[in-house]
Structures are given as structure tokens and as C-alpha cells.
Amino acid sequence: MSAQDNKIVVSAVVLDTKGVQVPGAIITDSNNVTTIANEVGEFALTVEANSTLSVKASGYKLSTVQAKSDLKTIVLQLDKSNLVNVAFNKVDKVDILGGVSNVNIEGMLHTNYSLFSLDNLSSFIPGYHGNIWGMNSKLVIVDGVPRDEFNVLPFEIDDITVLKSAAAVALYGSRAAKGVVSITTKRGTAKKSRFDVRFNNTLYTPKRYAEYLGSAEYMTLFNEALVNDGIAPLYSNEEIANYASGSNPFRYPDVDFYSFKNINKFARRSEIVTEYNGGTESAQFYVNVGNYNTTSLLDIGNGKKEGENRFNVRGNLDIKINDMISTKINTNVTFYDNNTAQGNFWGAAATLRPNLIAPLIPLSYLGNLDAGSQARLSTNPFIIDGQYILGGTQTQATNPFADIYTRGTRQATTRKYQFDATINFDLAKVLKGLSFDTQFAIDYNTSYAQNISDNTYAVYVPTWTGDNITSLSQIGNNVNNNSRTLEASYQRQTLFFSGAFKYKNTFNKVHNVSSMLVAHGYKLAESQVYHAIGSANLGFQAAYNFKQKYYLDFTANYVHSARFVEGNRGAFSPTASIGWRISNEDFLANSSFIDDLKLTASAGILNTDLDFESLIASNGAYFLERDVYSTNNGAYFSWQEGRQLRATDIQRVGNPDLTYQQRREISFGIEGSLFKNKLQFNASYFAHQLTGIPINDVNLYPSFLSVQFPSASSFVPYVNYNADNRQGFDVGVSFNKRVNKVDLNVGMVATYYTADADIRNDITFEEAYQKRKGTPIDAIWGLKNDGFYTQQDIIDNDYPTPAFGNVKAGDIKYVDINNDGLVDNNDQVYLGRGGWAGSPLTLGLNMTAKWKHFSLFVLANQTSGSVGLKNSSYYWPTAGVNAKYSAALRDRWTPETAETATYPRLTTTAGANNYRNSDFWLFKNDRFNLARIQFSFDLPKEYLPSSGFIRNLGLYVNGNDLLLISKERKHMETNIGSMPQMRSFNMGLTATF
């Protein structure tokens, strides 16, 4: 009876700060008794007097109030963390109609520190894996302005939004038709000033180096290759034994580029970042100052000087001038310098044969030199470390070690300045809910390179008597220039402007209306490019929702491009979207586990000129409506000796009908949250066709319209012809739960898509299996192998004639697909997807576990469904007698290994039969990667100074690219002809003052 007397009925309405009812709010008392506010925000709940009520609604901050019988209203504050940056606007996450994904970088940087702006974004954003929904040429927006993502680092970023659907990107116009990545940098807040410092140190360790044969083994296999080709061996057994013994590595060299005498075990990156922000309600500021520098793996000569240095300052101001006008100002300055040694050490590591030269010859081996040799050495300015001269041969007058030591360095310098300003006008006095925003931006990017002391050097060919050098031949001249030369000068300027009228209002507390009229454009001018890239757009958007239950959106853009003839330069791009928050319907309103559930659908047509940019690099594919004539190649001999006749050739016929390509798309989405927001999910399905892709295909026209002799001449124009089809889905799921005092957050994403050629000119292909239509746009084509030719095959001569030269036992045998008795390129078939636009299936996992002052973060990803070809010089020594041999050749075919060999016979030719695309060299690109593990610790506040000067102090360590699981792991982790892939380990300290 006493308990019943202590009960009260709370009957109230949930409102936002503007007095608008909040339907669907979840109200829970101290005993976990729950109810949900109805469609006008009202609820009634019987609870114990003076108990605590928690009120939660999507898009609003959690609010707690004391239960009283006279409680009539509960006001929720908007949760700005749920505001998502979309095209020229910020929208509550609950009102987005699909095709948009967002990740809060600032919020997770404490437990997941990374070094690059879009690092591992595919593990957080479904539908993104370097491109968006399988489309390349994404547009990157930084603070509303088209910019590159490389000039903003994670510690400068607030959040990243990926706009995927046609409806989501339509307002950005032509250049956004293949998706948008919008990066928003940090801003100041109206609170007590805060000063943050981060010290980070990174160690890079190579995953693995390419494995090449040593001198003795190389010479043995080279002899074998000569014999296979019917040529006598070049190296005697005695010579090979001398090289194998290692007794005199300068007379019998065995050059190992990857020896730790040449390379450090690790490289380093040191970084310091400071952030200062604060302000009042009328003005807020943010300043970020950062610097990092790196060291090199190389531990010889000028390689020790290699490294990068970056210094940046980013700042912004938010000022409320009066009740009507506010402004935002952003600026960024970046200084970037990169030092590299002259020459190409890593490239030479894949080409220089180990026995060819001794790059450095010790002076201690020079005994009883003849007078001429002594005279040549006396004027040599390049005595390395006081004890070596540079070695070479008559045919190898340079060597990569000599380059590193003598040729100096190359310093690349980049300076970037970015500025933008936004003015916001609140026009509520003119019309409630009306505002106007305008933004102007100007960016400058300049770069150049200096060649410092680009010396030339001579190499010396020794004459050996026993283990002493008695004579030296000099090849080339020594010139110590001690000079500087400039090259690779580049300038870029970006101008941007936008203006947008926005209207947002609620009628009768249930009808939510918003609209926008926006004009925007930008011009990107580059040095040595005749025509600047331009984009001009006029966009309109109108949106309506009823009680945040039924949604309707119409977005359109009128785009303009100077790439086309007048009359074709404008195009209209409409999109429409609908949404239904099914969780607000009566039949789900009282569901015990569904918090929010929304269905969306959209369709649209986007006009774009993006693919025209790659057609003609010299002018950016402008003026394609014009005929192009040239006299450059039209020179013919005449009957008059010593003179030529000058003729005019046509290079291209113009096409005045050329116009935009189109992205025609439909997409569907579902998103929601379950079990009191413990589980959140979103999924999208998309299908779109990219039509009117421009091509210049001579096979569309009679062959006499294009000739190559006596000079190239063509009457063939560019036309809108090709078309591609893409379809697929993406899914994102996050789970939050407290388990035994551990706060656990797990996020999973998945993306799967197909991208197939829909329209192609297949007239040159006779057989159905050769047609490109219906096959993936990243298809790999090649021959089907049938093992190796046997000696009996050669004797019987009973096989289709190979079109790639004479074959012998141990060469790859191919299948005659069309049964015409000839194996040639007409027998190529589809082998698999190359994955150039991303693997068909991409999975990502991120997990954060927090306990007291400790946190553990794990990031992993997986890709599957694509294939590749092992066709680098590591597997294909096509350089013939000059080829360097890798460990892959150990599994070669010989008569003794005919049954077990996995590599064809060796040859000193270019290997025209064996080294061509076929499934013999095919491998599956499936992989699982443990991308990052980070352990973080925050010092308890009771251990901090009592003065309060230090507010927070934290430590962290993480490792990146720690583990790759794949059958082809060794191949995937090996770089050929370039610096090795790296694992990295970070250790850092963070402090707040």
C-alpha cells in the first residue's frame, strides 16, 4: 500500500528548443520502465515520485529530469554531433534520405591515431574503397571548397562525409557525378580556452625485400638459359666457383642492394602538433600548428640526407557580427620539402645484375699501378669515404652507388596557401526561416625542384693481377659542378564562389519544409595547361517531411561546361528521393526493440564531363567540336634533291554533337537503430548506368578514314558511345554495449558491386567469347595455358602453331580456343576482374574497448573477388641477356623437373611466347589485413598536478599493417623497382592544458 501511494503519473510533451514537438522520444525511469512519445511528442508514464527520467530522441542530446506530477514539458537540445555536412548544408542525420555516410574523425582520433586523411576509411564507410561505388574520379571537398585530400592531416579534421548516391551529389554539379568526399576541419568552440599538444614518433620497418639470386647462382642459371637457346655457356665452372667463394668480392662481386650495409633497419617520422581553441558566444577561434620530418632507409652517401619536412598552420574564426550576420574565415599555409638522392637506387635494385660490376673499389687493392693510372687517380675528386673509387665497365659507365655518393641531391619544394571566407545572413526578419550564405575561396599551390650539385663522374675498369689491381681504365669524366639547377616548376590557382538562399520552417508543428537555391562555380588554372578547368552550376533543392515520418525531396542542377559547342554546354540534372520512417507508424510505435527504422529510395540523372579530362592531356579535351590540321608530320621527299614538300594532315575531325555523359541511377536504402540504440545499421542498394562515355575509336568507321603511313592522319572524331553498368550494395553496422564495466563498440562495413561494360564496339571480335560487352570493365584478358610443351610434343609436332615464335620443351603451351590451328591473340579469353576500381567484395571491422583509463582499438579489413597477373620484371625477365634473375626462376622447367616445375624454361631472349598475359601467371588477390592495433592510457586526474594546469595526459602505442593473411602474401608484400612496403609503429604523448 505504501509503494502504491508513492507512485505518480507524469504526463508531458517533449519539445525541441524551438518549441516543436519531438515524436518518438524514448522515456525511461530509474527502474527501466519505458514508454515512447506519440506523434505529437506526448507521453504518460507511471513512476515513483522524484525518480529520474532519461529522455532520448534521435538527433538530440540525452536529457535527464526529475519526475514530478506537475512536469508538463521536457526540452531537448539538438545534438550537433548528429548534424552531417552535405552539399552546401548541414542536415540532421535522421533526415538524410540515404546515400550518405559519415565518420567523426576527431572523436576517434584519441583511440585510433592515423597519419593520412583518408587512411583506412573503407573500414568505416560502406561503399568507399578508394573510390565510391566502384567509380573513380571522386571529388574531394575541404571546408566546402574543391581541394586535394593530401594537404589536410587527421589531427586537423573534424569529420568526413562520403556522398554516394546521385541525389546526394547532384548539387555539386558535373565534377561530382562520381561521388564526393567532404572533409570538414576542426573549429573553435565557445568555452574556456584549450591548448592541446601531441608528440608522435613513428618507426617504419620494411615488410620484405625482393629476393634476387646471388652472382654464382645467377651465372649458373644464365648458362642454363644459353644452352636452352642453343648457345655455348658463358661462364666457366672456375669462374662460378670464384664468385661463390666470396674470397675477393671486388674482383668477383656479388652485389646485394638490400644488405644492411646499404640500408637501415628502419626509417623514422617525428611529429609535433599543437592546437589552441576557445572563444565566447560571439567569437570562436581555432589554430593548429604542426610539423613532421622523416628519415630515409638508405644508409649510404646522399641517401642519408633523404627525407621529408612538412610545416603547416591552419586557423579559423567564427564571428557573430550581430543577430543577422555571422562570418567564418579559414586559412591554411603548408610548407613541404622533400630531399632525395640523385639516381634511382630502388629501380636499379631490380635491374643491375649482381656480378656485373663492383660499385666501389678499395684503394687498398691498388698495388703497383702504372703511371697512367696513377695520374688519372691523382685528379679524381670522388674518393668515397677516403678509401674507394667508383667501379664500372665499358658498357656500364654508371652505377647506382656512384649516383648516391657523387651526384648530389634533388630538393622538391611545395608551398600551399588556402583561404576561404563565408558570410551567413539570417533573413528571418524578412521571412521566417530564410537565410543566405555565400563563400569565396582562393588557393595557391606552387612547387619546383632543385638539383643540387648534379655532378658527373667517371668509373674505373680494373685490371687484376692476382688479388691486386695493376691498371685502371677510366670511362667518362669527373666534373664536380657544385651547382644548382631548377626544374619541374608548377603553379596552380583555384578560385571558388558560392551563394545559397536557404529556407527552413515548420508549419502546424508537423509539416517540415526546407528549400535551397544555390549558384556555385570554380576555376582551376595550372601552369603549362592552355585551358583552365571550370565548373559552373545552378542548383535547387526542395524537401518536405510530415512529422519526420514521410519524406519527399527534389534536387536538380543546371550544369555548364565549356568543353562542348554552344547549344550543348548546358544540361539539366534532376533527382528525386522519398523516405518513410516506418518506426513512427502505430503498428511499430510501441515496439520493444525497434528505436528507429527508415526506408528510402531515390532516382536521378546526372550530366557530367568528367571522362573528357583524360582524353587529351595537352588541352584537357576542349574544342573537340573543331577539326584539327597539322603540318608537323606532313613532310615528303620531292624530286628536287635536298628539299621536302610540306603537306597538311588532318589529325581529327570535330564533332559538334558531342555532349555530356550521364549517370542514370536508382538506389534504395534502409537504416535504423535497435535495442535502445545499442545496434545501429544502414544499407544501400544501387544500380546505375554511365552512358555516352567519350571515345575515339577508328573501328567505328571505315578503315580508310585513318592511316598511319606516310604519317598519322585521321578523319575519326570523338563520339559519345560507350556505356557501363554498375550495381551493388553496401552495409554498415555498429554495436554499443557495456559488458562488465567495459564499454564496447564494434563497427562492421561491407561493400559488394559489379561493374560491367554495357555498350562497346565489338566489331573487331569475331567470336562471342571475345566480346567485351557484358564483361567487367576491369577485366583481365589472356590466353589459357595447357601446361608446358614436352619433348615428345616437339618431336611429334602435333600442336597448334604458336604465333609468338618457335617453342621448345619447357615453354608454356596455350589452348587454341577457336580451333583454327593457330594460337594467337584471337584465343584470349576473360580471366577475371583486375580490381582496378576496388575489389568486388570489401569488408571492414573496427572495434574499441574501454575500461577505466585504458582503451584498445583494433582495425581489420578484407578484400576478395579480384585477380592479378605476376608480370613484373621479377617474374618476366624480358630484358634477355641483360635481365636480372629473381628467386622465382628457381622453380624453372628442366628435363629433370618436368613433372614438378612451376616456371617455364629459361631463355636469354625476350620470352615472347612465355611472357604474355595468360592464366599461367594469374593469382587471386584475396587478402585479410590486420590494419591497426592501438593501446591507449589516460592518466587518472588524481595523478595530475592539483593546480589544474594540465587537464589531461595520455599515452598510446599502435602498430599498422601488422599482418597480411593470403596465399599470395609474399607476392603482395613485395615491391619491385621501388621502395619496400612498410609496417609502422607509433608511440605518442597527448596533453591538454
Strand fraction equals over 45%
Distance between the termini: 56 Å
Shape: globular
In angstroms, what is the radius of gyration?
A: 34 Å
Low-confidence stretches: none
What is the tally of beta strands? 54
Total helical elements: 11
The main β sheet shows up as: 22 strands, antiparallel, barrel
Derived structural class: mainly beta
Helix fraction? under 10%
What is the arithmetic mean of pLDDT? 91
Describe the structure in your own words.
This protein has 993 residues and is mainly β. It contains eleven helices and 54 strands. It has a 22-stranded antiparallel barrel. A five-stranded mixed β-sheet has the order 10-13-14-11-12. Strands 3-2-5-6 form a four-stranded antiparallel β-sheet, with no helix packed on it. Strand 33 and strand 34 form a beta hairpin. Helix 4 packs antiparallel against helix 5. The longest helix is centred in the N-terminal third of the chain and has 14 residues, at 215-228. 34% of the residues are buried.
Describe the secondary-structure layout.
Blueprint: H1 2-5, E1 7-16, E2 26-28, E3 34-36, E4 42-48, E5 52-56, E6 63-66, E7 73-76, E8 83-86, E9 89-92, E10 100-104, H2 105-108, E11 139-142, E12 145-146, E13 157-163, H3 166-169, E14 180-185, E15 194-206, H4 215-228, H5 237-245, E16 267-279, E17 283-294, E18 307-320, E19 325-341, H6 345-348, E20 360-362, H7 371-378, E21 388-390, H8 400-406, E22 409-426, E23 434-452, E24 459-465, E25 468-475, E26 484-507, E27 511-526, E28 533-546, E29 550-560, E30 570-581, H9 586-589, E31 594-608, E32 628-630, E33 635-637, E34 644-646, E35 649-652, E36 661-674, E37 679-695, E38 706-707, E39 713-714, E40 719-739, E41 742-759, E42 779-782, E43 785-788, H10 791-796, E44 801-802, E45 812-814, E46 822-823, E47 829-833, E48 841-851, E49 854-864, E50 867-869, E51 922-924, E52 927-938, E53 952-965, H11 969-972, E54 982-992
Parallel strand pairs: 1-7, 11-14, 44-46
Antiparallel strand pairs: 1-4, 2-3, 2-5, 5-6, 8-9, 10-13, 11-12, 13-14, 15-16, 15-54, 16-17, 17-18, 18-19, 19-22, 20-21, 22-23, 23-26, 24-25, 26-27, 27-28, 28-29, 29-30, 30-31, 31-36, 32-35, 33-34, 36-37, 37-40, 38-39, 40-41, 41-48, 42-47, 43-45, 48-49, 49-52, 50-51, 52-53, 53-54
Helix pairs in contact: 4-5
